[in-house]
Specification:
The protein is an alpha/beta fold. It has 5 domains: 1-95 and 199-293, 3-Layer(aba) Sandwich (Rossmann fold); 97-193, Cobalt-precorrin-4 Transmethylase, domain 1 (3-Layer(aba) Sandwich); 299-370 and 401-505, Nucleic acid-binding proteins (OB fold (Dihydrolipoamide Acetyltransferase, E2P)), CATH 2.40.50; 508-583, OB fold (Dihydrolipoamide Acetyltransferase, E2P) (Beta Barrel); 593-700, Nucleic acid-binding proteins (OB fold (Dihydrolipoamide Acetyltransferase, E2P), Beta Barrel), CATH 2.40.50. The chain is 31% helix and 28% strand. It is built from 18 helices and 32 strands. Strands 13-14-15-17-16 form a 5-stranded mixed β-barrel. The longest helix is centred in the C-terminal third of the chain and has 25 residues, at 670-694. Bound molecules: iron/sulfur cluster. Residues 12-15, 72, 95, 97-98, 166-167, 194, 196-197, 224, 264 line the site of iron/sulfur cluster (SF4). Residues 12-15, 72, 95, 97-98, 166-167, 194, 196-197, 224, 264 line the site of iron/sulfur cluster.
């Protein structure tokens, strides 16, 4: 199945502008309510609702402190007057094309009859009607027009004009115009169908003529979406869906060519989802499309948008100059002018620019400012900035010239990307999207695809961690003709790692103290990054005390000072030391616990010849059985308990053998000692000999 997406599918200028306005108000902390749903799209309305935007049906429903946003259809003059009178804060997002109709009809006096081609119940038509000073009639097709002409004697009217709803069917409009010209020869006709609408309908007609079926995406209450369905249904089976979920109800097995279009209020995310689902349904058969949107869906990481692609296609060898590329791409639009403009005013969603020699007001919409997502225009430009711009479109009636900084930067930036790729230079960009199979980074006005395997992110981690971050990458694949570039963050990371490693190996030597960060722990030690190279602290080097696991001393992420104990340059192995000499408990004993000093020690173990007592962490002393009491005892447990804290005197320290002898008895009063000594003198001699053979247990914990 071949799927073709209409180029005109998705948000139109007016809707885009209104949605941006609401989001920018919300983002700047305003409380916002919209008078009716801002667009006929449930998903967008739900999202706005989740951000606190309320939908109200009448201005009296506006909660205190809320700003009312008037949607693209516009509202009646009476409501605007009431808002002004009551001083209710509001923002007017009425599409300029609708405002133009208000201006036309209100410029005629009460003696003029206004004919409006459209749906009498549609808010846009209600609004237009309210600006008419004289009588106004609405007709929705040629039949109603003929009846109107007869009933209201239109041919007799002294002054008669006709306008159309912006989304009126172009086909119907043509029929009605013929009738008006024939029946009411004095009628002045204003073709006020919006270009976005007519182009969309024309494309839908053409696409449906060449397709077996059409999928129209958009709200069921959206006037322009319904028109798209109507014009398509004339030529082939047509399905109107609001989201991709509805595709499961459609059997595509009989269709080999399916066209897809979308209403002006359908967000690109929904269109992408529909295309993605359709391509999956059809076992990933080729999706053919002329739109950049679909290029994303098939994830070929196209770097150029439609205009950019046109620019390159116009350039036979992809080596055209910047000026040639621009001329090729924009010749269709407005004689392809690159101009310089000075920023004179900035709103959250638009930048107004003075372009010398141009009578129209230059406007850059927020979407045309930068390839990177922009929250507020003032984040990108300031008043007084001189900008290089491309003229996108001139609308003399509106007196507006749409300009793009993004396109200028993009074409100019592409040359820089090609140069960087050829020179194997590192580029910098911001990750703007995570897509299936990789990420897209915006750099120099272009979008570069970076496959997941080249992001440097491990398989276990989500690519989302890169979103919004600035990354360095090199171009590893470049197609100048199609303006596609594939980047790799990994090659930059590898090169940086190699450079850091070489630097570390050139600077380290044994005995050196160095700062590092604990990267991982194993049962036998801790791995520490010492500036691009990992060394290992063996578990025995972590503490003077006996520990079961490195995590008792260090944790991943800890910054530690280590000593390089040994280097194996050939096998690239580094042994590190962590425990400090000054923390050696035997050094503490030497300094703070001289012979004859009295210590508080905790009984930790018993032997037949005495009890072991812990003096400080890592050092136990032996209280010989004869030194426990001044009376004869059979075993140490006769008078002592494990965990009991006792006061004892250090009677001897052997630093070589790491042994300490303690005595409780030495602290007992003199008179109490004599009997015990006499009674046990003979036994002591024998037991001491045994103790000195077994005493190494006292030093074990310190090693
Ligand atoms: S369809 Fe046309 S008139 Fe309607 S909002 Fe979009 S740009 Fe404006």
């Amino acid at each position: 199945m071949q799927i073709t997406l209409a180029e005109t599918a998705g948000f139109c200028f007016g809707v885009d502008r209104a949605i941006n306005l609401v989001y920018s108000l919300v983002n700047s902390g305003e409380k916002v309510c919209t008078l009716g749903q801002i667009i006929h799209n449930k998903q967008v309305v739900d999202d706005l609702e989740s951000r606190g935007v309320k939908t109200i049906e009448s201005i009296d429903d506006a909660p205190d402190g809320y700003k009312i946003v008037i949607r693209t259809h516009g509202i009646s003059k009476e409501i605007i007057d009431e808002l002004e009178k009551k001083g209710i804060p509001y923002c007017n997002a009425t599409c300029p094309f609708v405002l133009k109709i208000h201006k036309i009809v209100s410029s005629y006096d009460e003696n003029t009859t206004v004919l409006i081609a459209g749906d009498a119940n549609h808010p846009e038509v209600i609004g237009i009607k309210s600006y008419c000073k004289g009588e106004a009639f609405v007709f929705k097709n040629d039949k109603e027009l003929l009846e109107l002409a007869k009933n209201e004697n239109l041919s007799e009217k002294s002054s008669l004009i006709c306008v159309s709803q912006t989304t009126f069917s172009t086909k119907e409009w043509k029929k009605c115009q013929k009738i008006i010209k024939k029946v009411c020869t004095n009628c002045k006709i204003f073709d006020t169908i919006c270009n976005a609408t007519s182009e969309r309908q024309l494309e839908a007609t053409e696409l449906s003529e060449n397709s077996d079926a059409m999928v129209v995406i958009g709200g069921r209450h959206s006037s322009n979406t319904c028109k798209l369905k109507d014009v398509s249904a004339v030529n082939c089976d047509t399905f109107l869906i609001e989201t991709a979920a509805e595709l499961k109800n459609i059997d595509f097995s009989n269709y080999s060519k399916v066209g897809v279009t979308a209403g002006a209020s359908t967000p690109s995310g929904i269109i992408k989802e529909v295309l993605k689902t359709m391509s999956e349904v059809k076992n990933e058969k080729e999706v053919e499309t002329t739109s950049a949107l679909t290029e994303e869906v098939v994830e070929t990481a196209e770097t150029a948008d439609k205009a950019e692609t046109a620019a390159v296609e116009a350039s036979a060898d992809g080596e055209a100059s910047f000026e040639e590329l621009l001329n090729a791409s924009y010749a269709k639009e407005d004689n392809s002018k690159v101009v310089k403009g000075t920023v004179v005013r900035i709103t959250p969603t638009e930048v107004f620019v003075d372009v010398p020699g141009r009578k129209q007001t230059g406007v850059i919409s927020i979407d045309d400012l930068s390839a990177e997502p922009v929250d507020k225009c003032e984040d990108v430009v300031s008043v007084g900035d001189e900008l290089d711009l491309v003229i996108m479109k001139t609308n003399d009636e509106e007196g507006v010239q749409r300009l793009s900084k993004k396109l200028f930067d993009s074409v100019k930036g592409w040359e820089e990307i090609v140069a960087a790729a050829e020179a194997d230079e590192v580029l910098e960009g911001v990750v703007v999207r995570v897509i299936k199979g990789g990420v897209v980074a915006a750099a120099k006005g272009s979008q570069i695809f970076i496959p997941a395997s080249l992001t440097g992110v491990s398989r276990n981690d989500s690519l989302d961690i890169l979103k919004g971050t600035t990354v360095k990458f090199k171009i590893v694949d470049l197609n100048k003709d199609r303006r596609r570039a594939v980047g790799s963050i990994k090659v930059v990371l590898n090169a940086e790692r190699k450079e850091a490693e070489e630097k570390v190996w050139a600077s380290i030597e044994e005995g050196q103290k160095i700062q590092g960060v604990v990267k991982s722990l194993t049962s036998y030690g801790a791995f520490v990054d010492i500036g691009g190279v990992d060394g290992m602290i063996h578990i025995s080097e972590l503490s003077w005390n006996r520990i079961k696991h490195p995590s008792e001393v260090v944790n991943v992420g800890d910054s530690v000072e280590v000593t390089i104990k040994s280097l194996d340059r050939e096998n690239k192995k580094i042994s590190l030391g962590f425990k400090k000499v000054e923390d050696n408990p035997w050094e503490i004993i030497k300094r703070d616990y001289p012979v004859d000093s009295v210590v508080k020690a905790k009984i930790v173990n018993f032997a037949s010849f005495g009890a072991f007592a812990n003096i400080i962490p890592g050092v136990d002393g032996l209280i010989h059985i004869s030194q426990i009491a001044n009376t004869h005892i059979k075993t140490p447990s006769d008078v002592l308990e494990i965990g009991q804290e006792v006061e004892a005197k250090i009677t001897e320290i052997d630093f070589d053998k790491k042994r300490i002898s303690l005595s409780i008895r030495a602290l007992l009063p003199e008179e109490e000692q004599a009997p015990a000594e006499e009674e046990t003198a003979a036994e002591e001699t024998a037991e001491e000999e045994t103790a000195s053979e077994e005493a190494p247990a006292a030093e074990e914990t310190a090693e």
